[in-house]
Queue: 3 jobs
Job 1
Amino acid sequence: MKPIAKDKYIPLKPIIHPWIEKLLADKDLLADTVKQQCSPVNIQSVTPFAENIAEYKRVFEQYELKHKIFFARKANKCLTFAKAAAAAGEGVDTASHKELQQCLEAGIPGDQLILTAAIKNIPLIELAVEEHVTIIIDNMDEYDSLDSIVLANETTAKISLRIGGFTLDGKTLPTRFGFPLDEAYKLITEQIKKHPFLRFSGLHFHLNGYAIDQRVAAIAQSIKLIDDLAAAGISCEHLDIGGGYLVNYLAHKKEWEAFHQELKQAVLGQRPAITYQNDPLGMVLIDGKLHGEPTVYPYYNELPKAVFLEKILSSEDVSYGQPIHELIKARNIELRIEPGRSLLDQAGITVARVVFRKNDTEGNLLVGLEMNRTQMKSSSADFLLDPIHITHQSTELQEPVDGYLVGGYCLEQEFLLKRKIQFATYPKIGDLIIFPNTAGYMMHFFESQAHQFALANNVFCTADLQITKHDGD
């Protein structure tokens, strides 16, 4: 890789969908939208959402597999996306009482919904039973609660069992969710099979991380359990392999590699910092040596979305000697997935207004935005995409400057991005900063109203650039 000048800014150019490019070209519309909706505002579109559903369906159809896509609603609270998934003939994965209730009130039938909530209290289970929603059972306490409800009401409930404890290369894949495979078999054959009101419909798992071999091993071991259940006279209608499908956010591999290289050099003191106060983004420096890797999402990757799914399905499991798609098709099982982030790829941007410029005690330019860091936050140590600076200043005055974006919370740590970014020119009050591709987890998952700040408004953009309010959180 060609050496980079020690003081040079490290770009991370995002992929931008055509609908976003068209919107960004209309500066007046952006400014009017922020003025009407206040800052920040989340502007979203269902067009990429529909395109992403279609990508997944093409893979399933390529292998002639029965399938169902359940949009993981927790990734974005806007009901518009849940309704779009249902309108496309797919389903919605709900993770709370409010998520489930809103979907039902929106007219989405119970058989297009599943309940995967990590905590399922009695009211939530009762609602799911009443509306004939498939319930994903994770532990015996959930099972006992459901058992008491259906017995008391003499009501039938359809359930799927969450399983875990898969092994790979002799090691167990760690998880806090699900029943071990042997316990699942025992529960299904000894209790659920004989239950007067519970109807077993399938198996479910969700793996953390993005390892293809782990997914393949988990599916193969699930199929072994399905075969064992079939031998006991119990049919499995579906296998749900969860979510966690990669998204590629960045346009250039070399930029991604350069960032990692330069970050490590900066933390080691071999070049100027590229993060605020030389934040190592999860790495640890001990006795002059770096340990670990940045705890960030793989923002550049070459197996995104449907390509990731196709790689799983085409992989061969050593215990069967067949590709995964053949194992599933031979058993006539409906394969289910629960994508969230990947269905929302390119479906939204967050726009915020510049309210101040200043320098900190070390001379760093700080640009204050009318938002807070929870409105641009996920589990990744930083959001590693270049934001876009929209200014009405004359192009003659424009000369790029580097600095940091800060938000409204009264904390030293209130940085919207830890990475130093480059502005089109010295920012002016009222300029706009656009964070691209934020619909999946970034805009809603951790948002907070501390300081009594209002939550961001959510609007949708039509193909002809009409801005409309969404229809409920």
Job 2
Amino acid sequence: MNSEIYVVIIIGAILAVLLVGFIVTILFLYQRRQHRQVLEINRMKEEYERETLKSQLEIQEETFKNIGQELHDNIGQMLSVVKLSLAVLPMTDKHEAWEPIQGARQVLNKAMIDLANLTKSLHTDRITQIGLAESIHFELESINRTGLLEIEFGISGIEQSLDDQKSIVMFRIFQENLNNILKHSKAQKIQVILTYLDDKFIMKITDDGIGFNVAEKKNSTSSAAGVGLKSIFNRAKLIGAEIDMQSEPGQGTIVSIQLPLPH
């Protein structure tokens, strides 16, 4: 009789252990499946955000290209007509209007050069044709000629060509940083160093301006600078680049963008 009780107890214990094991297994599989679903939802969300951002940037680049073309074809043509009209005016250097007209011609020449530089900067095809480094150098030289800022530009390592999309996005990141410096930093000096390593490309932009609180500006939606910073980080995310932004009020700003390169 006692042996039968022991058998029943043992069988009951085994069944209880099996039942507990079954329940634990079911719970584990459920949690695992739920975890996979959360990961998949997050992946799909990131993919959607990436594709949305990519579409926005493609539309923006196409808009830049069209604006550049319109400026070149229409405004540039009108300026050329005005320049030609001034050149053929029948007067000598003895005429009382000679000096003002010469001044107007100089201003007109500068406007035409600035317009040409602007259209080149907006045109995506030029960036991919001459390369990222030369595009950045050209942009900095345009600022350097104004004499408003001290510009330092350097390249370290063996220059490598990036694919078209990454070149364009990196150039727009550079432009956005440059725009923030010119508008908000009150800097007197800008340094841009491009470094080419075997496995990554680094663009470092330094200014000696008034600096700012990075976290505060990045989370701000009420200022142009805050929107600009978000644009910089979003663009970097699109091409897999990492941004390290260091700044404090009164301490200037250092922005380092690292882009992995394929082996």
Job 3
Amino acid sequence: MLITDCLNEVFGFLEEDQITLHSCLLVNRFWCKVSVRALWRNVWDFKYKFPVIRQLYISSKILSTLIACLPNELRDYLYENEIFITTPTMKPPLFNYISFCRVLSIHEIDRIIYDVLRGHNADIPQNLSRNKHLVSRTILKMFMRQIPCLKELNYFSMGNIRNISNLGFINFPGATDCLTDLSIIKFEGNVSNGLKDLISSQNHLKHLTLSQCSHQVKWSDVISLLTCSIDTLTNLRTLVLSLNHMGNFEDFKELQHVTFPLLQILKFPHRFPKCEYLDQFLEINGKNLTCLHIADSDRSLNLFIAKFCPNLRTLSTTFAVNEIDLLEIILNNCQQLESIKVWCGYGCLDEKKFLEILTEFSPKNFYKLKLIHKANSRLFPKDLEEFFIRWSHRIPQKPLVLIIIKRYRVKSLEIQGENKKVIEKYKKLGIIKKLETVKIDDD
């Protein structure tokens, strides 16, 4: 029993390293029995650990295992509809893999089924959509029956997922027990009554992501959903509201006076609400926030952040080129800040001035800097070296984590010839703990 507990602890740390977990399956039967639980907790990302050329093979293995786990009546249902998917063996599976799942990704299930069926030469195109829909519903029925307690549900209504229809699976037998103790819901698509019922039935929901992937989605429906379900959201720690296709959403005014007593992380990855509404919301909920992400911003909003969010540890916002004073105010008022993400170039902060303010006013625990380059860097090597020298004199001295985010065609500060030498020098001196470059599409 002690050995099992120890292995469970170790495999828990390997949950993101699914390839290593898969290797643990092959050590012996005992290791297999323990590690298989961790691997199947969230099996949907497993194929992405491999090159694209191998992903269809991995998908087919996952799907064949799911089919092998189907109860006889559900498997017979597929046979009656002339859908034949091979299984690893004629014998029953060694484990009830479905019962190990704690994360359910509707979109990935649909994608796996679509890719495998499309790869079968026997499938004619006009039957592909129908067969995928039948297999998806059949597998979801099995999941609702056999997962004792799901913790995360991801639903993305885009691409081929549309053929799954809607959230009808929440009414399948067993769904009540399976879906009422979720910790995380991530939903992207049209808001439906099914989603309202799903959220209102939760007991311990901690993370909620609602994304609008189409201009046809009414944002008022999303806000209404939150205000109607407020009694079930008292445990909410993370709220992500992603709006792609419209401006400052007027309907947020319904949410501006709502209290989320445990809210710590608030993100607006695209548009943000009107400042007068967000002002009220931050006045009520800002004190508990430790992470705030706003893809765009303005002067008023940055002042609200400085005023109402004193306990932030992570901040992502935008400063105009003439708003360096606001950066100083935020750094002075948010004394718990450890990480900041800002834009540079094209009307945003000047790199040199930004780094000067950062070294002079950033709190003592600050250590992580994320720079998004909108244009070619104009930071000279002597300016970069001055920054690192000033950083090395900080007390306490925390090694810097520097993450550069840029478009593919942009020349960011770390690729300039002389800048490279400066960076390597201070990496060797231990002033820079980590340097990472992240490239994003020009679109």
